[in-house]
Structure formats: structure tokens, C-alpha cells
Amino acid sequence: MNIANIIRSVLGIITWILIINTIMLKNPNMISKTYKYFRDILLKWRWGADKKYFLKSGKTYELFLYKFIKRKYKDDCITLKKGENIFGRDEKIADFIIEDPCISKKHFVILVNENKQILIDCSKNGIYLNNIKLSKLPRVLKEGDEIQVSDIKFIVH
User: Could you tell me which residue ranges the FHA domain spans (predicted)?
Assistant: First the structure.
């Protein structure tokens, strides 16, 4: 068991202790704040330096639009903010970082507003939407669409 796994386990235990304490204190606002705080910490560790992919947890919102599908983390969700959501390799540019040499610094963007989500390919290597390689034209995303870059899939929900 490496140090990252130990830290993840300890953080998980602390999270549940705090949630149980707040339930006993009957303070529902504290439960939400505690959950969000520790969820962001756990996201940093899950996709941290010891993994190939990670997310910037400071840029997440509670609007669950997309599920992140990759190997054993099938239940993990990515939450997108309204406006521009950048996926890419460069930590300075991207909101969602993918450490892979096949991924461009700014690989693709999902624009989110009240009534639609638009996918924009900014990459050199391209992206696939529903197993078809996209042209550089923006596409409106629909429920059930599947975006693929390298070996990562995103399912639109």
C-alpha cells in the first residue's frame, strides 16, 4: 500500500466522521459544505501525480452534465461550469487536465449555456464524437453522445 492510498483512505474516513457528526448535530448546510470540501480533496488525490489523468477540483460546479468513463473509475462524474470548459494537456490553460502526449495543450472546449452544450475541437490529432472523427466545426451535444480523445471517453448525460 503506497502513501497515496493511505492518504485517500484517511481522507475518506475523516469525511464520513464529519458527515456523521453533522447529521447528529442536525445541521444540513454543514453536511453539504463538508462533502464538497472533501470531494475536491479526494479528486486531487485520485487524479494526482501518481495517476495519468487528473482534474482541477477548484473549477467544478454541482451541475452534473457529463460522466467520466475510464477503466475502474466508471462512476466518477465531471461537472461543468456555465461558459467555457477547456480540456487539454496544459495545466495553465485547461480546466480539465489530461496528461497524455497525444493530447494538445488545448484539445477541446465544451461551451455550456442554459439550453445547449457545444463541442469545439481545438486539437491537432482530432476527437471522435459517436465514433466519427470530427471536423473543426462546432457541434451541439445531445443526450447519449460519446466523446473520445486518446483512450478516454466522455458520455453526455
Answer: 85-134
